[in-house]
Design a protein that fits this description.
Shape: globular
Number of helices: 19
CATH topology of the largest domain: Immunoglobulin-like
Helix content: 25-40%
Number of domains: 4
Number of strands: 24
Distance between the termini: 71 Å
Structural class: alpha+beta
Radius of gyration: 33 Å
């Protein structure tokens, strides 16, 4: 181990010529009894400290891989020999091992072409599952593409021999292709060339965050400079979590900062689905995490203990990277979380970090998953500067109290929530063009008389023939409306047309905005009038909207048989008010479920619960819930969401905990709803939402 490091140090300091250097490398590889992965780790560490020339780095990397192939073949030969020794009959010639002099399959590297299309030009680095190269796409070059470069990730030798390695890479490609986000690298496809399997993705010009963090002169960034990087990482993870993915190997080497300052998350290679579909569960039990690629210094205790993945595992890793970004040091000295926990280590507060941000960072570094920050959105909200929210009363929006992301206080039950006001998009104002002043006509100081001359009469032009009227644009159809609505993320809509008047109601994310939706719908040809009854929701509600949005749409397209609303129509409640709701069920026997999604990333089950166990309802049943259970408004105050579900059979055999993690529940209820839909039909499931706004009692 020391000899390889010595050779690298000697070459980087100029003490060895290239020939002498590679001679020492070959000697080190022949004498060191170090595993393949550790040799690659040494190469990466030394290259991070003092970068090697790209061709030298790639050649050393290739020689280490050749060593791994030779060892792998030797193990295979020994295994075959043992197997043959046990056999009762001599093996057939076809089954005989290859001669000892046979050359192992050549490993491709810089200068080689993959599948006759991708020319490997530079080794960019390696991760837990593979080596990444910059490659020239010869097909793009032939087509005169402005950007003919891509990145290729080639599966490492130890994974290449894994019987399910191709499945691993195919799953990585499939998962990554579904994560279309500005802060997540774009993955194109996967393929193989002989025994080599590889993944193609967009080429990024820049450097991994790990290189910056390991620089000798790096001692942390000021909070304002670090915040954009923290925000980019958090946005990527939040997007992935909303779609059911946990990265599971989030570390600085998987955070790439481009030359333009954009943050990109790479390598979802061992990301495991924590919200799996029935198709995935039934099709295979293969888990790419079983290949063992992870980095202990950034893995949560639960990952190290091989527990089921959870978004809070990524939050721990994100907090470690954030701490290192702010201080230049790992919060626990690069110790794995389980060892740091056993040693009773506690992170020190970074200098000049505001107390509010330090609380958010410290909570995300908790060793216990149950006390760790529950969502990336909450972590990011705590890390960002606190802002005072000004409410424009003139726009007709009800005043909304600042949302405090703290522990929930419950008086029998704590229900904060809020609804943004009705669509208040400003009317389109077209400014009239100001008239252009005519330039003054110069007048001579003294007029000069000019003799009159006969002016020939000009011919009178014939009047132009009247032009044909423009053809009338036909009224729009719902087929033209549906694709526009489908492009809005985190949304649920219903639409109806009456001639040239379009009515749209539903929910969309506040980051998208009602004005943007109206602009997109107004551009549909033939539209005359647009009516919208759309409520905006914050990012932390996206998982809820996406989980139940299809059932909400089906329900309201069928007339809204399942509905929930606040008693007396009040959606603005004050501290101490009772939470009372009216519920209506469809024209069939059903089971009623009412759940309250709170701002801290958890969900409270109102019906059924220990205080309201009965939830079976006859057809067309109307009931008022909350009068006997004493749910009372308490702080913190803000905007939250209550969801009604009606199903033909019970959701679960037993009562769930009254208060549980939102992500855990959404995963469980999503799988159960798919089972019910497959057996009874999705139209037998109804959903409705209600948002409420709560505020403190005055005086």
């Amino acid at each position: 181990m020391a000899s390889l490091s010595h050779a690298l140090h000697a070459f980087q300091s100029g003490g060895l010529s290239p020939n002498e250097f590679f001679a020492q490398v070959d000697h080190a590889l022949a004498t060191d009894r170090t595993d393949y992965a550790r040799l690659l780790e040494i190469l990466s560490e030394e290259h991070t400290k003092v970068p090697l020339p790209p061709d030298v780095y790639a050649e050393v990397h290739r020689r280490i891989e050749h060593l791994a192939v030779a060892e792998h073949d030797a193990v295979d030969d020994r295994t075959r020999m043992k197997s043959n020794a046990r056999a009762s009959v001599p093996p057939s010639p076809a089954a005989a091992p290859p001669p000892a002099s046979a050359e192992p399959e050549r490993i491709k590297g810089v200068g080689d072409t993959v599948n006759g299309r991708f020319l490997l030009e530079e080794c960019l680095g390696f991760g837990g599952m593979g080596t990444v190269y910059k490659a020239l796409d010869l097909r793009k070059l032939e087509a005169s593409d402005r950007n003919p470069y891509i990145a290729i990730k080639v599966l490492n030798v130890q994974f290449r021999g894994h019987p399910k390695s191709l499945i691993a890479l195919q799953r990585e490609a499939r998962k990554a292709q579904t994560l279309a986000h500005p802060n997540i690298i774009t993955v194109y496809d996967f393929d193989r060339d002989g025994s080599m399997v590889y993944l193609t993705m967009e080429y990024l010009a820049g450097q991994p965050l790990s290189r910056r963090l390991r620089a000798p002169d790096f001692h942390g960034l000021p909070y304002p400079e670090a915040l954009p990087i923290i925000t980019g990482m958090a946005n990527a993870l939040a997007y992935a979590h909303e779609r059911g993915f946990v990265h599971c190997d989030f570390k600085p080497a998987n955070v790439f900062v481009t030359d333009k300052g954009q943050v990109k998350i790479i390598d979802f290679g061992i990301a495991r689905v924590f919200r799996r579909s029935e198709e995935e569960v039934e099709a295979t039990v293969f888990d790419a995490g079983s290949l063992g690629g992870m980095t202990p210094a950034y893995a949560s205790p639960e990952i190290l203990e091989h527990r089921e993945p959870d978004p809070r595992d990524d939050i721990y890793a994100l907090a470690c990277i954030t701490y290192q970004l702010l201080t230049g040091a790992h919060p626990f000295g690069q110790l794995p979380a389980t060892q740091a926990r056993a040693a009773g280590l506690r992170p020190q507060r970074p200098k000049k970090l505001p107390s509010r941000q330090w609380r958010a960072l410290r909570n995300a570094l908790a060793f216990n998953r149950e006390t760790r920050t529950p969502s990336v959105a909450q972590f990011l909200a705590g890390m960002k500067p606190e802002r005072r929210i000004m409410t424009p009363a003139a726009a007709g929006i009800a005043g909304v109290a600042a949302v405090a992301l703290v522990a929930v206080a419950i008086v029998y039950f704590r229900p904060p929530a809020g609804i943004l006001g009705p669509d208040t998009a400003p009317p389109l104002v077209v400014a009239e063009e100001a008239p252009v002043a005519e330039p003054p006509v110069p007048v001579p100081a003294e007029p000069v008389p000019v003799p009159a001359e006969p002016v020939p009469a000009e011919p009178v032009p014939a009047e132009p023939a009247p032009s044909a009227p423009a053809p009338e644009v036909p009224p729009p159809s719902l087929a033209a409306v549906t694709p526009v609505l489908a492009q809005v993320p985190c949304s649920a809509f219903t639409a109806s047309l009456n001639e040239r008047t379009l009515h749209v109601r539903g929910y969309l994310p506040s980051r998208f905005g009602v004005a943007r939706l109206r602009d997109a719908l107004s551009a549909i040809p033939g539209m005359a009038t647009l009516n919208t009854d759309v409520q905006q929701v914050s990012d932390e509600k996206c998982g809820v909207i996406e989980a139940f949005g299809p059932y909400w749409t089906n329900n309201w397209q069928a007339g809204g048989e399942s509905s929930i609303r606040m008693r007396d129509g009040r959606t603005e409640l004050t501290e101490g008010n009772s939470l009372v709701m009216d519920v209506t069920t469809p024209d069939r026997e059903s089971y009623v479920h009412v759940d309250y999604y709170v701002l801290d990333g958890n969900v409270v089950h109102l019906v059924p619960s220990r205080r309201a166990k009965a939830n079976r309802a006859p057809p067309r049943y109307t009931a008022t819930i909350g009068t006997l259970t004493g749910w009372t408004i308490a702080k913190p105050f803000g905007a939250e969401l209550i969801v009604l579900l009606t199903t033909p059979v019970p959701l679960f055999d037993e009562l769930r905990p009254e208060y549980e993690s939102r992500s855990d529940y959404l995963r469980a209820v999503g799988q159960r709803l798919r089972q019910i839909a497959a057996k009874h039909g999705a139209d037998k499931i109804g959903a409705d939402f209600v948002q409420i706004t709560t505020r403190a009692r005055e005086g």
